[in-house]
Amino acid sequence: MTLSLLHPLLAGLALSAVAIPIVIHLLLRQQPKTVIFPALVLLKPRQLQTIRRLKLRHWLLLFLRAALLAVLGLALARPTLRSSMLSIDQEAPLAAVMIVDDSPSMGLIERGDTRLTRAKSLAQEASQRLPEGSQIAVFTSSDNGGRSLAPISVARQQLDRLEPSNEQGSLADALTAGLQTLIESTLPRREVYIFTDGYRHSWNISGDSRLTLLWEKVGSDINVFVINVRAEQAQNVSIESARPAGGSVAPQAEIAIDVQLRSSGEETDNIVRLSMDGEARSEKPVRVPAGQGIKVPFQISGLAEGFHQGDVRLATSDGLAIDDVRYFSIDVRSSPRVLIVSDTPSDAIYFRKAIEPVSPSPESSRSLTEIRTRDWEKTDLSSVDVVALLNVGQLDQKGWSKLIEFIARGGGVFVAVGASALTDSYNATMPQEILPARLDSIHERPPTRLSIGEKPHPLMDRFREWGESDFADGVILRYWKTVPMPAAVVVLRYADGQPALIERASSSERAGRLLLLTTPTHYQASEIWNELPLSWSFVVLVEEMIKYLAGTGETRLDYLAGENVEIPRRRGDPWTLYAVKDPAGPVERLAVDHRDTSVVIPRVRTIGQYTVTASSPNRPLATGFSVNVSPNESLLEPISDDEMLATLPTGRASVVRDATDLQRAEGTSRIGRELFPWLMLIVICLLTAESYFSNWFYRRKESIPSVPNPLLSSSTKRS
Length: 719
Description:
Elements: E1 2-5, H1 8-17, H2 19-28, H3 44-76, E2 79-82, E3 94-100, E4 109-110, E5 113-114, H4 115-128, E6 135-140, E7 150-151, H5 152-160, H6 171-183, E8 189-196, H7 209-218, E9 222-228, E10 236-244, E11 255-264, E12 268-276, E13 279-288, E14 293-300, E15 306-314, E16 325-332, E17 338-342, H8 349-355, H9 362-366, E18 368-372, E19 386-390, H10 397-408, E20 412-416, H11 423-426, E21 437-443, E22 450-451, H12 461-466, E23 479-484, E24 489-494, E25 499-504, E26 513-517, H13 536-550, E27 558-560, E28 565-568, E29 577-581, E30 587-591, E31 598-601, E32 608-614, E33 621-628, H14 641-646, E34 653-656, H15 659-670, E35 673-674, H16 676-699, H17 710-718
Parallel strand pairs: 3-6, 3-8, 8-9, 9-34, 17-18, 17-19, 19-20, 20-26, 27-33
Antiparallel strand pairs: 1-2, 2-35, 4-5, 6-7, 10-11, 11-14, 12-13, 12-15, 15-16, 21-23, 22-24, 24-25, 25-26, 28-31, 29-30, 29-32, 32-33
Helix pairs in contact: 1-3, 3-16, 4-5, 6-7, 8-13
């Protein structure tokens, strides 16, 4: 920081004026005449003390009067405190980066205007105050690529066209792009404007290592203005989530829709309405407590097999309308057709019970078939989705060949090995083409347990969502030690680290999947291998494995705005041309290669319902997905000004709330902070002190104390 003077001549005159009271003091000082008077000798000590006190008072008054004139002259010189960059011509053009937070929460309406409208207005006013010839680059939190410095008129047009985005975006990314633009600028001065609503979910600048390096490169000659346009009283009720419980469901089954509401502000009464395929199904009155969330359960039924879409809405809208509706999709499918193969019925009983419905129906009986191993080769697999080999001792070459062909067509296979498994059969060349590991030896002691571990896998999503399982309660005494293949994926391990559930994923030759469990799925009192089938987690695991192997329930149907949508394709799918219809109506056609494993729709931005269709001579496709705004945008938790400043360069940033504060901050940063008001306050204090001390000094008259006359005293005594 440096000190500059608007009128340096007055400062020089002020310093010269300091000499005036000194000269007057010297001129008016009188030289006393020396008169010897013996009788006053006794008063000499008191006289010296009085003279010293008078000199001290005179020097104090002299200092006050000299300081008064000096400070008064300095104040008239208009001193200004400036930063290092302010030595540059103040009318020189500058490079400015304006970063506008266009996240969904900026659509909050207060006094008839959205937060984004308020931000655009302030940005337009700030652009008008820039010196002629300045350049501006406009970035938004949702779009921070391909922007460069442009003339002020061009930037103002860009600001006019800004609209609230549906995606959350990133202020850190926008600021990174903006600083890189400023580093490349040749203009002598640089400024950064950040327009945001100041909520914690959008301020993600803290801790970004990219910004730390860029602040150092851009240098100290930069000003940063954060314009906080947050609403004074935010009142908002949001639908945070609305999704079917359990993913895909069976036809005509009852479906639970879990709806989560949250209030930011006061307690609010509203009505929640649920629609399905464009038809109103149900509505419920709700009271949302202030600053809290509540759950609103809905139940629907009677959906036929196929793809369905619905939404949940608030009857009464509020300041932030974008989170007053939530879209969801449901894939209604028949249960996967499962074939259980075992040497004996006892090896299959627990696995069958895990996937068999509580109330069997004709449809469920057709979806589950059980055979013995001896009948494997003559069984037709054309209508089977998943094959489960449970403690099968061995298959001959034809048996393994049939299983390989089934996987190649896209089928799913589950293999659980136990005491009956023969290593020579499982480790032969043909089965090793599809199995994920070689069998080594049987581990018999000490006992262990299953461990979910930390590595993510779709089979474990439900357990991680619940945050619990009872795998640890089931003792496992025996299991097969294995040697996994290089490309194998270990889904579950035992507590001792050995693989428990291993996956051999699909490849270019095999479209299906295979899971190998290294311990059996049955329980017997004698020669017990494990207690796994006795746990409730075993039932959930079997259900998830069947859906995973059959390819049902794995397609994601709910996305957030700004994400990439990925629709899985399996080997043998006949479609190569897909039609994607967005909520606004236009249809986009996507062509894919028959070898592609998925259809990717990059960065969907419009919220609402999407449909995806494709056709072939014998097999049509009708599916889709839903896109919603991020629930984080409804968390209107403000961040303090101090927290914002802590993430920006010290001494170079300021946080303002309105146009007046912004103009004042610009003046302080560009011109400097004037010290005139503070100097005038010092002048008043000095003037008051001088007046007080001068009146006090001259009001008191110094008197010479009387000394008794010894002659008079002695004569009085004699008389």
